[in-house]
Design goal:
Elements (H helix, E strand, L loop, with lengths): L3 E4 H9 L17 H16 L4 E4 L6 H10 L3 E2 L6 H10 L2 H11 L5 H14 L12
Parallel strand pairs: 1-2, 2-3
Helix pairs in contact: 3-4, 3-5, 3-6
């Protein structure tokens, strides 16, 4: 293969065995589930070991909290809707790859989706990007 591209919506849906379009299971569909994050890490690492570029498409690419993790994992490209481009670009410019790796290492020690989400929210708030996830926060 020449490259690796991950569809975050499908990866999450299949890994967690939850149909994201079924209203009864929407509370189970969680892109910040530790298993999803570990799978993304494993795929990115395997791509890098094979000297292949790795990219991501899907809703996860539009999430500022996920951006921190994706940079830390070493993703080469992230596809997103045009409405999210400026906020994600702002986050990319605001964090070094080294800092994102530190964030990723910490996230990988957390055991629940809610703990991961809370940690990432706090990171963005402390970095001055809270307005991207909560209206009125710096």
């Amino acid at each position: 293969v020449d490259f690796v591209s991950i569809g975050s919506n499908d990866l999450t849906q299949y890994l967690l065995a939850v149909d994201r379009n079924n209203a009864r299971g929407t509370n189970l569909y969680n892109t910040f589930h530790p298993a999803v994050i570990q799978a993304l890490c494993d795929i990115a690492e395997a791509a890098h070991e094979a000297s292949l570029p790795v990219s991501l498409c899907g809703e996860l690419g539009s999430d500022p909290m996920a951006t921190l993790l994706l940079i830390g994992m070493g993703f080469n490209a992230i596809s997103m809707n045009s409405a999210s481009l400026l906020k994600i670009k702002w986050v990319v410019r605001g964090y070094s790859k080294t800092h994102c790796r530190q964030i990723l290492y910490k996230v990988k020690t957390l055991k629940t989706s809610s703990a991961i989400r809370k940690y990432l929210e706090n990171e963005l708030i402390e970095g001055g990007f809270g307005g991207l996830i909560r209206a009125g926060k710096d």
